[in-house]
Amino acid sequence: MREPVAITGLGTYLPRLMHDNQTLPPLDEPATAEEIARIGVMRRGWAGDGEGIAEMAAQAAARALERAGTRAAELDAVILSNWTQRRFIPEFAPRLLELLGASRAFGFDICCACAGLLYGVGLASELLQQPRYTRALVVASETTSQRARPGSKGTLILGDGAGAFVLERGERAGAGRLIDYELATAGEHHAIMDISPEGWVRTHIEQRALAELASRTIAEVSGRVLARSGVTLADVRWVIPHSGTAGVQAAIARRLELPAGRILTNFADVGNVSSASIPVALEHFQRAGQVRPGDLVLSAAVGTGWYAAAALYTV
């Protein structure tokens, strides 16, 4: 029998500099009002000095730990999701452990593109099935803005930020609960996106085809986790997916046959913050009073590779 896994803490961090569409550096080809409306992002953060991957992760993690009533020294495991600043050695998780003072924990980095945080949640939940592990921290930290070619319209979409969950083995009064998760990888789609030699994101299929693939994949992983949990979309209060693009969001709504009001995203306010998008959106709507304790939430994400993940949980 599986041990229950509680979600005891949530924390996020957005950069000090939040660009609106007037303060962004000039584009090579100015965007029309219609293009800006179609893109759908009015504001996004750009990380600056002291806001690297580990530093933003530490800010989000500290807030999550405070809300969980847990000290970093009590953590057993730390999983850090990041794809936007890949490097050989050292990776970022050891630096995060140092910044937090997580002296007892082991930590490691994962990628999985925009699905990385949910992959981390799945891995952490399995670790917490072992009696020797009690608490895990899962953090996503991304400088997604740095993967857009300067002067391109991608700078209108991509933003930076971090988000974190504290997960604990067992029931916790007043805490959320991870009910189930699903992970999937479709290798046949591994080449649809990549990074140019200069470091910019490149897409090798049409945007409409990408949106349809993303929505179909999200529907598939979501359907499996719902079926296994014995619930339907009608039972779910909110769907909070990885933001992706406005086109992806519209395709998800069509695919799941959900009214737009039940799909929550703060994409317009923060842009695409990649694997950090789900916790960033969740906290935004909790603060607004829209997501309330006990609500049943479905979150799903896809990431180029082609990765997919879904999680069903209460808050």
Report strand order across the widest sheet: 5-4-6-7-1-8-13-12-11
User: Any idea how many domains?
Assistant: 2
CATH topology tier name of the largest domain: Peroxisomal Thiolase, Chain A, domain 1
Oligomer: single chain
Radius of gyration: 18 Å
Distance between the termini: 23 Å
Q: How much β-strand is present in the residues? A: 25-35%
Under the CATH scheme, the architecture of the largest domain is 3-Layer(aba) Sandwich
3D structure, described in words:
This protein folds into two domains: about 5-170, Thiolase/Chalcone synthase (Peroxisomal Thiolase, Chain A, domain 1); about 175-315, Thiolase/Chalcone synthase (Peroxisomal Thiolase, Chain A, domain 1, 3-Layer(aba) Sandwich). Helix 2 (about 55-70) crosses helix 3 and helix 5 (about 205-230) packs across helix 6. It is of the alpha+beta class. The protein is globular and about 55 Å long. It is about 30% helix and about 25% strand. A nine-stranded mixed beta sheet has the order 5-4-6-7-1-8-13-12-11, with helices on both faces.
Give me some keywords for this one.
single chain; about 325 residues; 9-stranded mixed β-sheet; 2 domains; 8 helices
